[in-house]
Design goal:
Strand order of the largest sheet: 9-10-11-12-18-16-15-14
Structural class: alpha+beta
Number of strands: 54
CATH topology of one domain: Beta-galactosidase, Chain A, domain 5
Distance between the termini: 73 Å
Largest sheet: 8 strands, antiparallel
CATH class of one domain: Mainly Beta
Strand content: 25-35%
Length: 877
């Protein structure tokens, strides 16, 4: 598309003469480095532990990921590769980086010496081979390995939409390459044609996470295929290609892929590779990556710091993936073919993860591509009817929560990135927020999602509220006051889940708190987390949350307790609760902003302590060097930004909160031709003083404009904590100040199911509001004292002050014979079960909590008989 020719030409000119120990010249900078930056990338970081990355060859945000497959299934096989494995099944052309679910692994090729139509996974003879990491190498855009069982050397490299294999056999006889179309995902449709003795084309439609992934391929071989007739007569899905190679030359296989058709795959291959040889493509791939990595140049004496940084930066540039042929055609969310020359179209948006840091990073170093991402979002909205939460190959996966394309758009717009149809984007944002699925119906009417109506109710309520705040910001910029009022009020709905008795944002049934409450428990109220990790998720109104919690000291105390709580969790499916510091879980995204929250209460030195600890203890130059799933760049984006010294706690605010810089010097080469440099003077993790463009900088935060305008941010460091940034006027502020809402009262004491009577105590978190209650919503009484209920029925409550009022919340009460045993059942949608063999249980309906295995909503241990929560009544024998 529009960037390919210019970028490729520029890359060749810029790096063709580059050698070690020379000056690297970029289009807007001169920065010194001791070696090419690609040499600092360890593509094996994240391939061990639970990182779920792959080590193979790919291009920045490219369509093709050509990598070895060492694992066929299982949670730690999501990328197809795990560092603990010692068998390679072959080399496929699509892979996901750091996800919590398996997909892809398309069009497997494997060189071997026998025409075996079996992969050997069951222990029988197969085309797979043992390998050793001692004979394995990888760098950006390149991978090589020696296959021990067959004594074959393999090299792989790629362009954006095409790839090259090079195989070196030991003997000229019995040279086979297995083409397996049945590898990994369930095969829906396939096509395989031998076009000539050196050409193959076909398609593979498969179903896994993406329920209908459509992929086409075109293969060009360096040597003739001898057994064409046998292959075409076969009914197998595994094809042994036998090559004629009497001189025993390296066998090269060139392959293009396309989501559109076979002609597109062929055109992609011919355009991007054509007649070029392997080493030329390898060099072009390396040069392109070198240019990408030069967007941020760091200077530091610590080698592992450099490796960790550039490996992380590399991982932020793997996804999203280009999903468009060289002629502009692509496969849309309606699975139909579309075409555009105006922008590049992408897929693989892990938005629940990446809106937090990866996309804010892109607003600094990938502004043009950010416009493409947003144009992609609006195209997907037109094609499929809604912007996706997690899309994969033209498929809505139904995975994860929130509508986080929304903050990506708002954050970009607020930062001046606007090369897209703004009105259409705003329309799509509001559309995402006005559906009645995934708890949005009750969220809109009640101001929160009741536990009994929807799984992950706390996480969904909190994340919807933040997303709504970003809609409000854009509405204000676009001068849409009615929309601003609606969404700034919805942005405060987090308040409805604050339980003053516990200090946590907590699961709430119609009007009673989920009990028994254990903040360390991983249950169905939260997404891949527990109450500790979501207890501080109010990035849009941190000041309002601080006030609810009782002020700065109480908020700071809660932060301290979180980082010092026992490092344990309870409940089922805890695979994502990793990287623990107390109850802070860096291995998953809900915790990622939390270390920076000390700045909001005037204790930036505590942020500096925690950020430094995370940077130096939870990221390593090793296969298990990330503390959780890489998640399409989010885990690495946290490292990139935090090691530079700042982090976007609230995307959409144009503000970054300062942590602590890790490197002696870091220079960001901006697309506008300017540079922003961060310098660290002295040792220690604490900031003693700072200067922005030679002027004293007292704020413990910076603006996006400071970065984009270029200049220098310099820090003087100390080995001891200092008072820098502690004066209140220098704190960052996140606050909603207008259109303040009232939250509904809640039942502080009392039982919803009783034998004789129950005494109901109401409470609220509103200031100066009056609580009212009604048994039938026709006659309202002011709440002045506890209410005694003797009969089954409903109790409605509301808070009012003048013309302002909260939503009405109605609770059903039940009366039962005390000699009977009664139980409460529920029916809600299980949206996501993270980790393990049950990853991505999506859209299920049932009466048993799939995480804890039991319903815990009642406060009475003797309730064992099933009753209907929606039909209040007296139960008798």
């Amino acid at each position: 598309m529009k960037r390919i020719v210019l970028c490729s030409l520029f890359t060749i000119l810029m790096f063709s003469c580059q050698q070690k120990n020379e000056t690297i010249i970029t289009d807007n900078s001169v920065a010194k480095t001791d070696r090419p930056l690609t040499e600092y990338v360890n593509t094996f970081i994240g391939t061990g532990g639970h990182g779920h990355t792959y080590p193979g060859a790919t291009m920045p945000f490219g369509m093709m990921q050509l990598s070895p497959d060492t694992r066929l299934d299982g949670w730690d096989g999501c990328s197809g590769y795990h560092y603990t494995d010692d068998v390679i099944y072959g080399f496929s052309h699509t892979h996901l980086s750091g996800t919590g679910v398996s997909d892809y692994g398309d069009i497997l090729l494997m060189p071997t010496t026998k025409p075996i139509l079996h992969n050997g996974a069951d222990g029988k003879e197969g085309y797979s081979s043992k390998f050793s990491h001692d004979n394995e190498k990888a760098s950006p855009g390149y991978y090589e390995v020696h296959l021990d069982d067959t004594d074959i050397d393999v090299r792989l490299t790629v362009t954006e939409r095409a790839g090259m294999h090079e195989y070196r056999f030991r003997e000229s006889e019995n040279q086979y390459v297995i083409l397996d179309l049945n590898h990994r995902d369930k095969l829906l449709e396939h096509k395989f044609d031998i076009v000539s003795d050196t050409e193959i084309s076909g398609k593979r439609f498969s179903s896994a996470w993406a329920t209908k992934q459509m992929l086409y391929f075109y293969i060009k071989t360096s040597h003739p295929i001898l057994n064409q007739k046998e292959i075409m007569a076969s009914s197998h899905l595994i094809y042994p290609l036998k090559f004629e190679n009497p001189k025993n030359e390296p066998v090269t296989i060139k392959i293009g892929i396309s989501p559109v058709d076979e002609a597109g795959a062929k055109r992609n291959l011919e355009t991007e590779i054509g007649d070029k040889d392997f080493d030329t493509i390898k060099k072009e791939a390396n040069d392109t990556w070198e240019k990408q990595l030069n967007k941020i140049v760091i200077e530091d004496d610590n080698h592992d710091n450099k490796v960790n940084f550039y490996s992380a930066l590399y991982h932020t540039m793997i996804a999203p993936n280009l999903y468009q042929d060289v002629d502009g055609r692509y496969r849309g969310m309606d699975l139909e073919i579309h075409e555009t020359q105006d922008f590049d179209y992408y897929t693989v948006f892990s938005l629940w993860d990446t809106y937090r840091a990866a996309h804010p990073l892109y607003t600094i170093i990938e502004q043009e591509r950010t416009n493409d991402f947003i144009n992609t979002f609006t195209a997907k909205y037109k094609e499929g009817g809604i912007m996706p939460i997690w899309d994969l190959s033209g498929n809505y996966t139904g995975c994860m929560i929130g509508y986080h394309a929304v903050p990506v758009i708002a954050d970009a717009y607020m930062k001046g990135i606007r090369d897209y149809d703004v009105d259409l984007a705003f329309e799509a944002m509001k559309h995402s927020a006005t559906r009645d699925k995934l708890g949005l119906d009750s969220y809109k009417s009640l101001g929160f999602i009741p536990v009994e109506l929807e799984s992950e109710s706390v996480s969904k309520t909190l994340e919807y509220a933040y997303d709504d705040w970003t809609i409000a910001q854009l509405a204000q910029e676009l001068k849409k006051p009615d929309d601003y009022k609606t969404y700034i009020q919805r942005a405060q709905y987090y308040k409805n889940l604050y339980n003053p008795a516990t200090g946590f944002l907590q699961g709430r049934m119609r009007n009673t708190w989920f009990a028994p409450f254990k903040p360390e428990e991983v249950n169905f109220n939260y997404t891949e987390a527990n109450a500790w990790q979501y207890s501080l998720y109010t990035p849009q109104d941190i000041s309002g949350h601080i006030k609810l919690m009782g002020g700065n000291a109480a908020y700071e105390k809660h932060l301290d307790e979180m980082f010092n709580a026992p490092m344990e969790t309870s409940g089922r499916h805890q695979a994502d609760i990793t990287g623990l510091i107390g109850q802070y879980a860096h291995g998953n995204e809900p915790s990622h902003h939390i270390a920076y929250l000390y700045n909001y209460v005037g204790k930036p030195y505590k942020t500096q302590e925690k950020v430094y600890e995370i940077l130096t203890s939870l990221y390593h130059n090793a296969p298990d060097g990330v503390s959780g799933n890489e998640d399409c760049g989010q885990m690495s984006a946290w490292y990139v930004l935090s090691s530079l010294g700042f982090y976007p706690v609230t995307p959409g605010s144009n503000e970054y909160v300062i942590g602590t810089p890790l490197f002696d010097k870091a220079t960001i080469n901006l697309e506008n031709g300017k540079q922003f440099t961060i310098e660290k003077h002295g040792a220690g993790k604490y900031i003693a003083s700072a200067k922005a463009n030679s002027q004293p900088h007292y704020n413990s935060h910076i603006t996006h404009d400071l970065i984009l305008n270029g200049g220098t941010l310099a820090f003087d460091m100390s080995n001891e904590a200092t008072d820098w940034g502690t004066v209140q006027e220098n704190w960052p502020v996140s606050s909603i100040k207008d259109e303040l809402i009232f939250t509904p009262p809640f039942i502080e004491k009392g039982k919803v199911a009783f034998a004789d009577s129950t005494v109901i105590h109401l409470n609220q978190v509103n200031e100066n509001a009056t609580m009212f209650y009604s048994r039938d919503e026709s006659a309202w009484q002011e709440y002045k004292a506890p209410i005694t209920l003797y009969n089954a029925g409903t109790l409605s409550v509301i808070a009012r002050m003048g013309d302002k009022k909260s939503p009405v919340v109605t609770t059903a009460f039940y009366k039962y014979d005390k000699n009977m045993k009664v139980t409460l059942e529920h029916s809600y949608a299980n949206e996501y079960s993270a980790g393990g063999n049950n990853a991505l249980i999506d859209g299920m309906r049932g009466t048993e909590d799939f995480r804890s295995g039991a319903w815990q909503g009642t406060q009475n241990e003797n309730l064992n008989v099933t009753i209907d929560l929606g039909n209040p009544r007296t139960i008798s024998s």
